[in-house]
Amino acid sequence: MSEIDQMLAANGEWLTEFPGGLPVAPARKVAVVACMDSRMPLFGLLGLAVGDAHVIRNAGGVVTEDTLRSLTISQHLLGTRSVVLVHHTDCGLQKTTDADLADLVERTTGHRPPWTAQAFTDVDADVRESIRLIRSTPYLLSTEVRGTVYDVGTGELREAV
Ligand SMILES: [Zn+2]
């Protein structure tokens, strides 16, 4: 059975715990911007329940045009106001550079991507930059923007410094 077939089959189990219909606006008025890392179960590690928060994920949890698009919709249409960033230790984006990834893609496919990977070395500095980008976006309505770093080795979440 393929991985996707297994997921479709697993939905039967989910139906037994499905909490029922909920409002589209997140109950806790929070948007989470996080890395796509497979070791970060965000609802569990942040104490969130279904319906509590928007979760916007990408490689690195970086603030891109599309992150800002999603945050704008989250805030203007669906009432969120707090933004929490969740970056983490041992991130894939710390294991490459923008040039190395572009070179790899070009060698493999013959095409150089038009975007940069937004690789980083210092996770706290990257969180600070993401906070700065969100706070300086004039069309957002955020009342609180904070950043965190999750340790994938221990499960501990700390506020970025
Ligand atoms: Zn990551």
TrEMBL record:
<keyword id="KW-0862">Zinc</keyword>
<feature type="binding site">
    <location>
        <position position="35"/>
    </location>
    <ligand>
        <name>Zn(2+)</name>
    </ligand>
</feature>
<feature type="binding site">
    <location>
        <position position="37"/>
    </location>
    <ligand>
        <name>Zn(2+)</name>
    </ligand>
</feature>
<protein>
    <recommendedName>
        <fullName>carbonic anhydrase</fullName>
        <ecNumber>4.2.1.1</ecNumber>
    </recommendedName>
</protein>
<dbReference type="GO" id="GO:0008270">
    <property type="term" value="F:zinc ion binding"/>
</dbReference>
<dbReference type="InterPro" id="IPR001765">
    <property type="entry name" value="Carbonic_anhydrase"/>
</dbReference>
<feature type="binding site">
    <location>
        <position position="91"/>
    </location>
    <ligand>
        <name>Zn(2+)</name>
    </ligand>
</feature>
<keyword id="KW-0479">Metal-binding</keyword>
<dbReference type="InterPro" id="IPR036874">
    <property type="entry name" value="Carbonic_anhydrase_sf"/>
</dbReference>
<feature type="binding site">
    <location>
        <position position="88"/>
    </location>
    <ligand>
        <name>Zn(2+)</name>
    </ligand>
</feature>
<dbReference type="GO" id="GO:0004089">
    <property type="term" value="F:carbonate dehydratase activity"/>
</dbReference>
<dbReference type="Pfam" id="PF00484">
    <property type="entry name" value="Pro_CA"/>
</dbReference>
<comment type="similarity">
    <text>Belongs to the beta-class carbonic anhydrase family.</text>
</comment>
<comment type="function">
    <text>Catalyzes the reversible hydration of carbon dioxide to form bicarbonate.</text>
</comment>
